[in-house]
Amino acid sequence: MERLLVLARHGQSEWNLKNLFTGWRDPGLTDRGVEEAVKAGRWLKSEGYGFDVAFTSNLGRAQRTCALMLEEMGLSNIEVLRSEALNERDYGDLSGLNKDDARAKWGADQVHTWRRSYDVAPPGGESLKDTAARVLPYYIETILPRVMSGQRVLVAAHGNSLRALVMVLDHLGPATIAGLEIATGVPLVYRLNDNTTVASKSVLERDIDVS
């Protein structure tokens, strides 16, 4: 039984490019973001991967990334499930602000704490711990049973919703997760044991030639 789980952060968004806090706001992908999503699908196809079902968030940038990846793989007709549980972390009052402007207003240390700590939330927003509190139950109740039944599963989501999931899959503590960055459009490929633990993990690197 394959027990394949692939995680992919959406391609670069317009607000990633502008260095803005995005959260639950819904900017589209840049041209580069579209290219990243297409290449991610191309990488996976070139390595022989396929999927039976895909999961994504309620935000357009993740949904479009998912669609572009599947289209590139010739899998546009598979089941795609969308859930708010996989949305990006809500940045609250920081949403829409330039990160440099936020540092000027609140100080670099405070903004770094809001961005990278495990359990400190920005004003009106979510901490990574809060994000994990909605991502992990959805993973356990909805995504994991599909993987364990032998379905090949793609999850196209966001930097922080995926960080919350990777924290559990890779057994990372709050101090370690603070330094983890998930690159846009680079698939993380997991295979699970029959007890749901990770059997193997690989990262499909950007420099694979799939042109």
TrEMBL record:
Enzyme class: isomerase
UniProt entry keywords in alphabetical sequence: Gluconeogenesis, Glycolysis, Isomerase
Residues of the active site: H10, E88
Gene Ontology MF: a single term: phosphoglycerate mutase activity
Catalytic activity field: (2R)-2-phosphoglycerate = (2R)-3-phosphoglycerate
EC id: 5.4.2.11
CDD domains: HP_PGM_like
Residue numbers marked as site, Transition state stabilizer: H158
Residues that, per the record, bind substrate: 9-16, 22-23, 61, 88-91, 99, 115-116, 159-160
Pfam family, one: His_Phos_1
Pathway it works in: Carbohydrate degradation; glycolysis; pyruvate from D-glyceraldehyde 3-phosphate: step 3/5
Protein family (similarity comment): Belongs to the phosphoglycerate mutase family. BPG-dependent PGAM subfamily.
NCBIfam families, A to Z: pgm_1 (TIGR01258), PRK01295.1 (NF002339)
Protein role: Catalyzes the interconversion of 2-phosphoglycerate and 3-phosphoglycerate.
Subunit-structure text: Homodimer.
Protein name in the entry: 2,3-bisphosphoglycerate-dependent phosphoglycerate mutase
Organism per entry: Methylobacterium komagatae
